[in-house]
UniProtKB/TrEMBL annotation, chains A, B:
Classification of source organism: Bacteria, Bacillati, Actinomycetota, Actinomycetes, Pseudonocardiales
Pfam family, one: ROK
Alphabetical list of Gene3D superfamilies matching this protein: 3.30.420.40
Record family assignment: Belongs to the ROK (NagC/XylR) family.
This protein's name: N-acetylglucosamine repressor
Signal peptide (UniProt feature, chain positions): none
Amino acid sequence: MGITVEDTRQVVAVDVGGTEIKAALVSVGPADAVPLRRRRRHTPRAAIAEGASAEEQAAAGTRTVELVVDAVHELIDELRAEATGPVHAAGVAVPGVVDEDRGIAVYSANLGWRDAPLRALLAARTDLPVVLGQDIRASGLAEARLGAARGCRDAVVLPIGTGIAAALLVDGRMLRGGGFAGEIGHVDIGHQERCACGAVGCVEAVASSAALARRYAARIGRPVSGAAEVAAAVQTGDPVAIAVWEDALDGLTRAILLLVTLLAPEVIVLGGGLALSGDLLVAPLRDRLAALISFQRVPVLRTAEFGDEAGCLGAALLAVGIQEDR
Amino acid sequence: MGITVEDTRQVVAVDVGGTEIKAALVSVGPADAVPLRRRRRHTPRAAIAEGASAEEQAAAGTRTVELVVDAVHELIDELRAEATGPVHAAGVAVPGVVDEDRGIAVYSANLGWRDAPLRALLAARTDLPVVLGQDIRASGLAEARLGAARGCRDAVVLPIGTGIAAALLVDGRMLRGGGFAGEIGHVDIGHQERCACGAVGCVEAVASSAALARRYAARIGRPVSGAAEVAAAVQTGDPVAIAVWEDALDGLTRAILLLVTLLAPEVIVLGGGLALSGDLLVAPLRDRLAALISFQRVPVLRTAEFGDEAGCLGAALLAVGIQEDR
């Protein structure tokens, strides 16, 4: 399938996450996107005092926008200085609700900003053209054009990390829904635990890697380092870890079945940290799904090809003007 | 918003349902689609003996295809004879999984056919160009271009009848998913009743008009004429009818919440027979939805503008080459 630029171009790509900013100088050619240099740093954010008022929270969000713009601008300059030729543009992916057409970061629960005109703020700091994207859709774009879903017209890319959201490729186009589409982590699957979003029963509250670590820690009475520790305990036969893992598998199965019934993807690409668990995750999901599907189109389940670099590679594709259509 | 033909054209539009075929001679102009003549007849189908083998069932499906092609062809000829000018084309909408591009009716549980090349079969019987569509997406197209969702880029049209499925308009395009998209009636909402599709917990099994009638009849121990009878009993305060109605409202609320979380429609158009219940349906759905939405985009709920004529009007739009894109 590949991509559609004719010549090879260098761009700076930035993926702003809730805890870390990943940036790379990327060479985008007709058939691939190759990171030439990489940078990572913590995502800066304004401190919020416990019990802060709504106004104080809004002010912190605005301050976080300034800090992030500074950090992204610095990364762009640093990587640009290392380029071996002209840099064509910068692509920046951010989390939450994003209006790509207007270049506005509409909302991020995690970073606390609202209606931040990130594209204009960054463009004012550099003479490069800046393209703003959303992290999940950017990851999906990379997997759909170059990775585990290449060649598919109907695919879902499902990163399972601190949160859970999906990039929905249908009929060859990435769905936006005004920037709100794809929040599969927040569908109700019928359990009684409360989610950070305020609702009860969300997939994310039992099946994200954060939920796995949190729920296992609560049951064994000590903190754990993350979902990988739960996975390791599952492999030693720890019944508590197995129970928590099963809950996550049940939740993910139900989420995937919803996606299959509504959107009929040919391929579902599992990404994020949890996908590193490989067959501890994918094989049982495949079995559970096979047992539940009735008339629906059966999807192929795969793990992501680009891991946590997908967002950055997707931002690089956006920077050379590759959109989600084909 | 309107549609995009420049002149006014007459077409024959046919909507093949599980029990009835609706057909019309329709005048499609730049801003509207007006039925000039209408015809209805029962949908013919081959009889299947109880306990028929898979081969016998397949043979009956093939025979039903022939009977339906005969009937549709007759309706086209009859309506064409009544036209006041040249007839431009015929648009035919059928239920189930449809491959619009190839003109093939891939599967209908209700009519028992598989991989029926309906467009080619009909084109062989008439010198008119024939366009094949799917009934739910055709209804959605009519409501999106001319009816209750006109002007929207993100909308869901949800006919609630014998079954439940949705036309999904996202970013101005109707989703197809290889013909499989939109089966919201078959998502699991956690109840224990079995659905005709073979799965347990489907929305359709408690919230379709057929389910309402069936579940009420089972509780009062006598047959009822349909969902309208249940609605009438609800209005007299019958506690059994109210309990069955509440189950349907709960199921529809959960289905709508899923659509809102995944696709973020601005407008949800409730259609089909159940939408005729008006405020017995829409007002409580609106209240329940408001109580459950957290961060999602809140949709406007409306009833369909074209009722059970939407499929026919959508088929007329398809006949003049209007697709779901804008």
